[in-house]
Amino acid sequence: MKKIYLILFISTFFFGFSQEKNLTLSDAVLGYSKGLYPKRLAQLQWINNSENYIYQKDNQLVISSAKNNTQTNAITLESLQKVYPNLTRLPRILSITNTELTFNSKNTFEVYNYLTKTKAYSVTNSELGENTEFNNKAKATAYTLDNNLYVANASNPKIAVTSFTDKNIVAGQSIHRNEFGIKKGTFWSTKGNFLAFYQKDESNVTNYPLVNINTYPATLKSIKYPMAGQGSEKAKIGIFNMKTNTTSYLDIDTSDEHYLTNLTWTPDEKYILVAEVNRGQNHIWFNKYDVQTGKKIVTIFEETNDKWTEPEFDAVFLPNSNTNFLYLSERNGFMNIYEYSTNGNLIKQLTNYKWVVTGILGFDTKVKSVFIKGTGTDPREMNLFKVNLTSGKTTQLSTKKGTHIGSINGNGNYLLDSYSSITVPRISQIINTKNLKPTTIFTAENPLKDYKIGTTEFINLKANDGTTLYGKITKPANFDASKKYPVLVYVYGGPHAQLVTNSWLGGSRLWSTAFSSLDNYIVFTLDNRGTENRGFAFESIIHRHLGDIEMEDQLNGVDYLKTLSFVDKNRIAINGWSFGGFMTTSLMLRHPGVFTTAVAGGPVTDWKYYEVMYGERYMDTPQENPEGYKNACVPNYIKNLDGKLLIINGSVDPTVVPQHSLTLLQEAVKQGVQLDYFTYPMHEHNVRGKDRVHLLVKMMNYIVENNKAITSKHSLQ
User: Fold this and answer.
1) CA nearest 488: which of 567, 591, 388, 391?
2) How far, in Å, CA of 693 to CA of 315, rounded?
3) Total Cβ atoms within 10 A of residue 696
4) What distances in angstroms separate CA 380 from CA 80, 296, 332, 430, 527, one per listed residue?
5) Domain limits of the chain?
6) Which residue among the candidates 283, 545, 591, 685 is catalytic per the annotation?
7) What is the architecture, at CATH level 2, of domain 447-706?
8) What is the edge-to-edge ordering of all strands in the sheet holding 159-160?
């Protein structure tokens, strides 16, 4: 196989004048730098509270009007360099108003007045600072050093918010391992007078040993890793007063290791709303706390569920209201919008869709409508909508089929919409939200038009219970239906993931497109039950028995493949990473004879070794669900191996720790089973950079070399 890639490289180099070039795995991995992904209008965004938008073109930032799509101003690199001579290229815009733009240069946040072409002010924090969050109203930056939180302003680069010497106490960073929609650890108040922050005590969390081989000799690289059924972190919420430079805490007892999430400031800065979730993750209390006293005022609402509850969205207050807010919940089976008041009254359920709302974009000036995003009736898509706040009447703003990403301007009159589909690389447009008229401002060319690639097609299947499942097939270039092609099933299959989408290439990774045509393979992917954007029943059917339903659906996908005249049913391989690695090893070992070859990357092989927050949501604890954990434990099935299996992991993976792969290898040795193993030294859960080319070549070589008809004890039907 390596020789094949060499020949392809040489032919492309010497015969580059050919209209069709071969898309190599190296091209695919490094595709962004090679221009193989659809172009976009860089830095496209609204100017705050205006009907103007900005984007980058060459060495200038162009400001245009949404009313008539004409340029009104431009900020050139040359003009910026006169004030900031160290700039070598246009900076990334963090925010922009009608007069000022904010950007980050190394460890300094710069605010530039582009009308007067002068520096407004700057805030510099420590060069070693991490988790930075700048706030224009406070004119300050929050940042972390090691386990403590600091604030910098124009006059002081290091104001201590916390000063813990105990490394088990961590302030200002994301908590609960980024579950529950948590992406950061600091939260500026509406007017910038306060900084709320997450804090965690990891004293009860075990240390997990990873090894740094880049020292002489190798040294311990220990991390905190809360495994299912074991000690977890204890969370707190702190509040830093910017005027008095004092820190206080909300009065919340988390000695039971329950979770704190969806932290939201009220617009008047008097209260904080927070969703509290029990460790069992089947009960939510959405509570209101007084900022001054730290005391709980009221529980606004509670939610319970026999399987799990998973709040993922902050409250969104209605404009000009300190009391009424919108909240997203899937309590009725699909993520919908509810209006509450902070005194605990449910005003109304605003939407009652049988599809999934995925976010709130904003409001119009008169607060008559809210703009939202969601799947719409086709869960493979993402669409943009306007919802009347009184009646709930819904108007779809994105009329073209595909995956839409949108942002609303300050008064709600215009929507920036960028979308793609399986056939459309990318189109950016401005939609007038009153008359729904779209104006195209950018159309991307097909970046693969000069390459020899095949087609990707959608398919629909039925699960055993009648549920519709969505899949896709990528066929190689020069596909000939009279021939027989080997198949690679690419799988993920876990929660919060969707691989089949009506987006460019059907949501496929570019490497799978390259592999299909380089090696004349069919690449097949199916989103089984348990994956996202299909509603709670579809996702939660996996509760307490991960792998069972998911494999059932994937096997139905294989049965479908075997009905296709152009599929070689005796040469089907499977590949997946992370949860996909769990699925790959489970399918290979629990259903021997179906696949000849499997490559599993970063696989979960025993759920008791996975983290508390994710693992216990779907499996409960090992103590509560011993049979479920035993049934899903991959090493229990190693003796069934029939074919070739390659396990790959990063040597310092902090997400799916190496213990997963190593215990599978240990059991293989005990059972006298031969399998293959490769580790990427000093890589974490994903292999990134140029080393990823090595990974892809290794995986695809292994599949091509070993995906041959099984002639052992199991036969394919």
Assistant:
1) 567
2) 42
3) 21
4) 43, 41, 21, 23, 10
5) 146-309, 315-444, 447-706
6) 685
7) 3-Layer(aba) Sandwich (3.40)
8) 130-135, 140-145, 148-153, 159-160
Starting at the edge strand found earlier in the chain, the sheet holding 324-329 runs 316-317, 324-329, 336-341, 346-349
Place of tokens 């909300």: 250
Residue from 508, 578, 586, 661 carrying the catalytic annotation: 578
* Percent of the chain predicted with pLDDT > 70: 96
The sign of the torsion formed by the CA atoms of 499, 503, 505, 506 equals positive
What letter would DSSP give residue 92?
A: P
* Residue type present at position 259: Y
d(CA 290, CA 248): 12
Alpha-carbon span 152 to 122, nearest angstrom: 10
Output the CA torsion sign for 11, 12, 16, 19. positive
pLDDT digits (tens, 9 = 90+) for 45-97: 999 999 999 999 999 999 999 999 999 999 999 999 999 999 999 999 999 99
Please say if 653 is a catalytic residue: yes
3-state secondary structure of 621: coil
Residue in the structure block whose two tokens are 């509560």: 624
User: Which residue in 594, 599, 602 sits closest to 574, CA to CA?
Assistant: 599
Amino acid at 444: A
Band of pLDDT at residue 709, cut at 50, 70 and 90:
low
pLDDT band at 708 (very low <50, low <70, confident <90, very high): confident
**Rounded distance between C-alpha atoms, residue 489 and residue 487, angstroms:** 6
- Beta-bridged to residue 298, according to DSSP, are 288
Residue 211 one-letter amino acid? V
Burial class (CB in 10 A: 0-12, 13-18, 19+), 207: exposed
For the entire predicted model, the pTM comes to 0.94
Is residue 714 part of the annotated active site? The answer reads no
Is residue 669 helix, strand or coil?
A: helix
- Tokens 């124009």 belong to 154
Which option is the CATH number for 146-309: 3.40.50.11720, 3.40.50.620, 2.60.40.10, 2.140.10.30? 2.140.10.30
**Which 3 state secondary structure label does DSSP give 549?**
helix
Q: How far apart are CA 34 and CA 32, in angstroms?
A: 5
H/E stretch holding 266: none
pLDDT of residue 710: 52
Among 620, 653, 660, 683, the active-site one is 653
E-strand ranges in 207-354 read 207-212, 219-224, 234-241, 246-249, 259-265, 271-277, 283-290, 296-304, 316-317, 324-329, 336-341, 346-349
Active-site residue, 660 included? no
Cα–chain-centroid distance for residue 252? 30
Task: Report the topology of domain 315-444.
Answer: Neuraminidase (2.120.10)
Nearest in space to 603 (alpha carbons), one of 588, 584, 625, 589: 584
Q: Are 667 and 635 in contact (CB under 8 A)?
A: yes
pLDDT in tens, 626-677: 999 999 999 999 999 999 999 999 999 999 999 999 999 999 999 999 999 9
- Cα–Cα distance measured from residue 274 to residue 296, given in angstroms and rounded to the nearest whole number: 10
Instruction: Write a three-state SS string for 121-171.
Output: EEEECCCCCEEEEEECCCCEEEEEECCEEEEEECCCCCEECCCCCCCCEEE
